Amino acid sequence: MAQPNSTSTRRHFLKSGLASTLAASGMALSVPTFLSGCASVTETGRTQRQWDAEANLIKEMIKRPTFAKRKANVADFLKDYNSDFKQALHAAIDQVARQGGGKVVVPKGDWLCKGPIHLQSNINLHIESGATIRFSTNPDDYKPYVFTRWEGMELMGYSPLIYAFEQSNIAITGKGTLDGSAAKDNWWPWKGKWKASTWGDDPVENQKYTRDTLQQMVENGAPVSDRVFENNYLRPPFIQPYRCENVLIEGVTILRSPFWLVNPVLCKNVTVNDVYCKSFGPNSDGCDPESCTNVLISNCTFDTGDDCIAIKSGRNADGRRVKVPCSNIVIEHCEMKAGHGGVVIGSEISGGVENLYAQYCTMSSPDLDRGIRIKTNSIRGGHLKNLNYRNIDIGTVKNAVVVNFFYEEGDAGNFPPLLEDITIENLNVASANRAFVLRGYDHTPISGLTLNNITIKRALKDAVIENVAHLKLNNVFINSQPLNKNEL
């Protein structure tokens, strides 16, 4: 194979700001010198060494929070608050925060929290092994409303179950359990009609009515302070740090969420490590970083009712107004079980995504709909660039790789998505309904997609490939047959 011209394939990385840091470290050598003599050069011009350097640089830039050694045990505060766990916990947080920060310990036991937990700067909320915090399902407990995002739209809404606003150096750690207590008789019916519904007919009171009004307010440019609803059926996410810096979520088990499970928004330096997410309700996404910079998601297990990991950056006019992409993201050593998608971009992606590295992950379940997925449309749009996936093993999945410009509203807007430098390599799939579902627009085809060293051992149906331009293929096999670009 002739040596590829890597100048164009690296252009977005070189513009991203990461390259200047690599240059200072001595890693960003001139292209001809860097490629010469490298047997591991891929079809895209990226070598193993370059990939490692780019992903490792992001990890090195992520600053984990550090805390003072002082600590307080919530049990020591219960007597003063008539055994009310929430009040005792916030008293402990207040005391430690006033002293300069440290660890607030939730000891072994079953604790009912009648409302949200609000974290402060320099606080490590540590849930010990054997401790379970069970959250109330009374919506009024999550008032007063707070500044939040719901499906990528800003509003004054129910407080997330665990929330922090404009704080720094915060953590949720330990081997304990966070249980949102959501079920078919409290939060979940607010979804309304849902394919897995167990609550019978479409409830009269559901999110559609609030959501439609919120979407119209967003399009009209209404101030966020005016986006307040007396009849609010927008379920709160479980954990949402908002405009925070140096965030760590590590070790905990998260169960039965009203809505998305882990949803950092507009945060910088986020680490989600060794977290077990299990929730099968509607919109039970596992981890959804939105408009965040420098994110590491590692060693996590996702068994969810919606996307396992979904990268987001705001919806429609709000995403374009805030205009902050989700950038510099590393996903590695994670396991994806049930879910709508394993590693997903979208669908609230109007602010764009850049510099994603997903690697060394395993995915398998009869209930896993898609492995690698990009979902958007011409209302949501989004500029997606330098997205990289490698060394991913998929057992059973419905569709292995999906890029869909026709999600929900389809081609109904004026903001067609733009894809550049998307690479998937070293992907092995045991069994899929379809290997690929790639659907672009005739006026704006999918572009910049490279598929390198991919094996789909068993695919039951033909791939769907519509309106794809400049597709690069190298060593792609489906049912033991090479995928020939000329036949597409």
Unreliable spans are 1-15, 25-43
Beta strands, count: 30
Number of helices: 7
Which structural class best describes the helix and strand composition?
Answer: mainly beta
CA-based shape: globular
> What is the beta-strand fraction?
35-45%
Query: CA-to-CA gap between the ends?
Result: 22 Å
Q: From the alpha-carbon coordinates, what is the Rg to the nearest angstrom?
A: 23 Å
Query: How helical, in percent, are the residues?
Result: 10-25%
* Average pLDDT number: 91
Largest sheet: 25 strands, mixed
Plain-language structure description:
With 488 residues, this protein is mainly beta. Helices cover 14% and strands 36% of the residues. The protein contains 7 helices and 30 strands. It has helices at residues 11-15, 18-25, 31-35, 48-61, 85-98, 207-220, 316-322; strands spanning 71-73, 102-106, 109-113, 117-118, 123-127, 131-135, 146-150, 153-157, 162-165, 168-173, 177-179, 239-242, 245-250, 253-255, 268-273, 276-279, 293-298, 301-304, 309-311, 326-332, 335-336, 343-345, 353-363, 370-375, 383-404, 418-439, 449-456, 464-466, 472-478, 481-482. It is globular, with a radius of gyration of 23 Å. The protein starts with 10 loop residues before the first helix and ends in a 6-residue tail after the last strand. Belongs to the glycosyl hydrolase 28 family. This is Glycoside hydrolase. Pfam families: Glyco_hydro_28.
